């Protein structure tokens, strides 16, 4: 499991550890890991041109000490000091290792000096030591000008701890920020490393262990080992009923494909049987594509809503929401959600537009503040919310969050959400909690899409068809 913490949690773990260690130990650990990561990123240090952007805090200190190490290994290192308060011992270390520093990137209006432009333009890498966990969102004019030059000349930026300018605790990016080719973080992941849009600004995130000791985090992200541990693999005593039976109330004469595709998603999950409930013509289409599907009867969980269109029967859905069996509520079915009942067994799977409607806000507001709105809906409706998108944010009513970051943009294809809804229903029917079903479903869905996309552009159908192979690769 990958755990992501708030700045306050990180600071308290750091101060506990610092109290036990000689001064400066943690910064040296961070700087050593950073220098190694930059060296690996460059594919060699000797002769490399490295420009450090240095702010006023310890984030700049990390970058300066890492720069000193790189200079000792033959790199040409220049530090651009963006603040008169830049880390003095770090500057001294860089200078004594043969690096140089220049004060400020430009004049007071943010106009960048010509020699700084050529320094940045000729760099092999720019190291963002502007701000880390002590930063506020946004970049000051001289920092912004320097970052823009690096972008303009295509120079990759390695972010120290966090890409400067993002909001570390929410993953929001309300202001200009660094877009990193690599982020090297220390001790643990922070929320901005997992939650979009900030997560996209991090690039790959490399974690350097500095010895922090932290309790389990509220925000977590499943890894392959967690998938293995959670997946309900059948055993010798299993039968089709004990493996779980999922009922699907999806699709309509208007959208018969949604029923066929959601069924494929459910069959690609762990259940022993899939039941379809819907108009005769749609049921016939489902059985033609999937002859193993049966009709109404007892189920352990429902998937309701994908492509329901005019079939939407709000009173019937509310009956099922109030019954004992857990429910995945998708697409049109979300219209049946009300904020009165106890719905802890419900997993709602909106995309940003659907979540915006549920909360009465604009879609763009949800996109910009994904974690906040997923949590808000989970609390208001007392359901687990799986917010779809390039990264998927899952929030449970008790405050636990899971983030899925392994999807491929190829997954942005019609019907992909129907596959996910069917799969999550299958996982609920097999006995997983809504939070685990959502996290595992999102992971498997994304893995199947990645596998399918090896053969070119994918469709919802090919994603569903790849679920068994993607699952096998993960659990064996
Ligand atoms: N603690 C530890 O054990 C370890 C910590 N480590 C490292 O320390 C980092 C945290 O260091 P930190 O606390 O000094 O804060 P940091 O992020 O460098 O700068 C904050 C200062 O910047 C300023 N500022 C704020 N917003 C700004 C903006 N938008 N644009 C420009 N400037 C802005 C503001 O000062 P101001 O200029 O406003 O006076 C503020 O005081 C952490 O991320 C990790 O890299 C590692 O060495 C491992 C051990
Ligand atoms: N850019 C993207 N990168 C990765 N995954 C994406 C991206 N855009 C959408 N997805 C995923 O694709 C699926 C789309 O679902 P949805 O929006 O419900 O589409 P549909 O209603 O057509 O099925 C979701 O699982 C979502 O997380
Ligand atoms: K930074």
UniProtKB/TrEMBL annotation:
Residues that, per the record, bind K(+): 59, 128, 164
| Residue numbers binding (6S)-NADPHX | 58-62, 132-138, 161, 258, 307, 351, 418
| Cited function | Bifunctional enzyme that catalyzes the epimerization of the S- and R-forms of NAD(P)HX and the dehydration of the S-form of NAD(P)HX at the expense of ADP, which is converted to AMP. This allows the repair of both epimers of NAD(P)HX, a damaged form of NAD(P)H that is a result of enzymatic or heat-dependent hydration. Catalyzes the epimerization of the S- and R-forms of NAD(P)HX, a damaged form of NAD(P)H that is a result of enzymatic or heat-dependent hydration. This is a prerequisite for the S-specific NAD(P)H-hydrate dehydratase to allow the repair of both epimers of NAD(P)HX.
The GO terms describing molecular function are: ADP-dependent NAD(P)H-hydrate dehydratase activity; ATP binding; kinase activity; metal ion binding; NAD(P)HX epimerase activity
Write out the residues that bind AMP.
388-392, 417
Gene3D superfamilies annotated for this entry? 3.40.1190.20, YjeF N-terminal domain (3.40.50.10260)
CDD domains, from UniProt?
A: YXKO-related
Enzyme Commission code(s) on record: 4.2.1.136, 5.1.99.6
Record organism:
Kribbella shirazensis
Instruction: Kindly list the cofactors needed.
Output: K(+); Mg(2+)
- The name of this protein is Bifunctional NAD(P)H-hydrate repair enzyme
Q: What PROSITE patterns does the record tag this protein with?
A: YJEF_C_3, YJEF_N
Give the family this protein belongs to, as stated in its UniProt record. In the C-terminal section; belongs to the NnrD/CARKD family.
* Complex and partners: Homotetramer.
Which HAMAP family does this entry report, sorted A to Z?
NADHX_dehydratase, NADHX_epimerase
> Which GO BP terms sit in this record?
metabolite repair; nicotinamide nucleotide metabolic process
Keyword Kinase present in the record's keywords: the answer is yes
Q: YjeF C-terminal domain spans which residues?
A: 223-474
Catalytic activity, reaction form: (6S)-NADPHX + ADP = AMP + phosphate + NADPH + H(+); (6R)-NADPHX = (6S)-NADPHX; (6S)-NADHX + ADP = AMP + phosphate + NADH + H(+); (6R)-NADHX = (6S)-NADHX
Q: Which Pfam families match?
A: Carb_kinase, YjeF_N
Query: In the record's cofactor note, how is the cofactor described as bound?
Result: Binds 1 potassium ion per subunit.
Q: Which residues form the YjeF N-terminal domain?
A: 10-218
